[in-house]
Every structure is written in structure tokens, then in C-alpha cells.
Write the C-alpha cells for this entry.
Amino acid sequence: MSVRPTAAAAGKIDIGGDLTVNRLGFGAMRITGRGVWGPPPDRDRAKEALRRAVELGVTFIDTADSYGPDVSEELIAETLYPYPDDLVIATKGGLVRPGPGRWEPDGRPEHLRSVCEGSLRRLRVERIDLYQFHRPDPKVPFAESVVTLKELKDEGKIRHIGLSNVSEEQLREAERITPVVSIQNRYNVTDRSSDGVVDLCEQEAMVFLPWAPISEAQGVPLRTAAEAHGVSPRQVAIAWLLARSPQILPIPGSGSAEHVEENIAAASLELDGEEYNAITDAPGA
């Protein structure tokens, strides 16, 4: 009987110097309803996806109060609490949801404080290991939002601070206020707009969390590698991210246990140099 690959095959990564997780995580956005709005159509199926991720060695789960809203965090606690000792749950605040598929920034200090408190309650924890500012709000000075996260950290409600959807300039501004341990920007074989931020994270031993890690790209090099290894193009896309930088922690998500198994199997997939370079150099991947 063959042994099913686990997330441990991707190796380890340190977060903030005091948390170590397997370098293939789970993004919990897809366990909600259509448009990332409301409950999932099949609650038991979504919970099984969460359980399967942990069974297969995932020790890092990424979520946000805006996923649902509230639904993703509630399902995580309902399914996994009390949490395994090695499980790190990261969440985010700073986006509000007027309706399905709609996302609006809200970086006001009073909002960030309120949603952080809400995440603590829903996740049933006293401190959030990694709390990320979901998106800068053009109506609120960036520093004001970051100062609020620093205050919450000083109060013991946050262990580490991360940023999402930011530029290098915004990272530097935040670092003048408080240490930042992670960046979460859109990044995949097709969208390389955050290449410079990935390189920066590698230079400074920060974690880079690529959102939308599996693009819909079906480029020839991607398909060729998939056929050569007998795997799916989405598994090759994950393997490419793991090879791109040791500081990348992919967080593919799904509301299906079967897709979770497929994603995690990519942890043991190794692309050779020729395959990696062909995917990297291909226009549109």
C-alpha cells in the first residue's frame, strides 16, 4: 500500500522566530458559501476538508473575519477545537463585506480592534498567533492602522503581525512602527507582480503567503511537467511556488477533502531545474 504524502514533505518554515510549521498550509476562504458569502452549501463537507488537511499534516491555517463573514472562523473552531498543539491559525482584519463577492477596506482603529476581538471569540483563543492587516484603507492613514495592531500585540491579543496586499514601501513604513513577520500578496505562476516582495522576504527571513496560489494558467510547460510526473497542473503550480523561494508558504484552499488531498500531495513533488525554468520563463506560464 502506498503512503499518502503529507504537508511535512514540503519541509518546515519559521514564523517570527518562535513558531515552526510545515511549509504547505491551508487557506480557509473556500469553506464558505458562493461569493465567499454565508455558510457553505454542505457544512459537513466543508468540515471534512478542514479535518483532512490537519490529518495530512497541515499545521498552518489561514483565514479572515471577512470570509463569510465570520463563517470560516466559526467552522474552524467548530471542527478543530481544541486545537492540536502544533496548529497555527492565522487570521486577518481590515475588509468588510457589503454583499456576496464585494470587499471594501476598513482600516479604522476602532474597526480593527472590534474585528480582532471578534476573531478571538470565534476562534476560541486568548491570543492570535498571526494577525494580518487585510488591505490598506486609502481613507485611513496606513500608520494609524498599524499602530492599532501594535497596541493589540502589546495587550497580548496578537503574537505576531503580518500585512496583506502591500508594497515594499508600505512594509517599510509598518516596520518603523512594529516588527512584521509575514506578507500575503497575490502571487502564482501567472501573476508575478510581487516578485520583488518575495525576494525581500527571502533576504529578511520573512514568510511570504501567496494568495490565489493556483492560477488557471494552462501553459505548455505547466502541462508538460504535469504529464511527465503524472499529476495535475494545479499540483505543479504548487510545486513551483515551493521551489521559487524557501520563504514561500503556499496556502491552497478547498471545500473538498479530495481537492485537499490533491493539493497536499504536491508537497512531495520536485521539479527538476529544466522544468522549473521552463515554467518560470514562459509568458503567462
